[in-house]
């Protein structure tokens, strides 16, 4: 259940660039208006010509590939829907620290506090994490 990429500022700006190009704006005008390099706008224009706005929306938003695949995310979601006690913690409550510890123990990947929260939020389960630190 990944985050809707259209909500990301970088994607919104990319779509704005595509719309401006479709409306007839020049590459330099789009670059200046949206604070993009001309090389970036040229790349967007080529993608737009090949696949339209849909192709611009589907472009990767960057960053390295996740170490967690869909099966891992499903397992994490199932764990969060249950009790933390089922995974060896002393109480039922899920915390960010517990989620991070569980992911590291199961998948050997250490995530930041913010990214662990983002995983839970993207899964629609951010509300399962209590504010407690442990």
Give structural notes:
Helices cover 57% and strands 3% of the residues. By secondary structure, it is mainly alpha-helical. It has a two-stranded parallel sheet.
Short descriptors:
134 residues, mainly alpha, 6 helices, elongated
Strand content: under 5%
Radius of gyration: 20 Å
Overall pLDDT confidence: 87
What percentage of residues falls in helices of 4 or more residues? 55-70%
Spans of at least 5 consecutive residues whose pLDDT stays below 50 are: none
What is the secondary structure topology, with strand pairs?
Elements: H1 9-22, H2 27-34, H3 38-58, H4 70-81, E1 94-95, H5 96-107, H6 113-122, E2 129-130
Parallel strand pairs: 1-2
Helix pairs in contact: 1-2, 1-3, 2-3
Summarize the structure.
The chain is mostly helical and 134 residues long.
């Amino acid at each position: 259940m990944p985050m809707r990429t259209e909500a990301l500022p970088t994607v919104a700006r990319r779509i704005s660039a595509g719309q401006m190009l479709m409306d007839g704006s020049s590459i330099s005008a789009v670059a200046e208006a949206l604070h993009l390099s001309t090389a970036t706008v040229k790349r967007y224009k080529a993608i737009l010509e090949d696949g339209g706005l849909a192709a611009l929306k589907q472009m990767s938003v960057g960053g390295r590939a996740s170490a967690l695949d869909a099966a891992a995310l499903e397992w994490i979601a199932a764990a969060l829907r249950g009790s933390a006690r089922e995974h060896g913690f002393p109480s039922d409550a899920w915390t960010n620290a517990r989620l991070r510890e569980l992911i590291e123990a199961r998948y050997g990947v250490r995530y930041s506090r913010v990214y662990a929260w983002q995983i839970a939020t993207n899964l629609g389960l951010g509300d399962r994490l209590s504010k407690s630190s442990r």
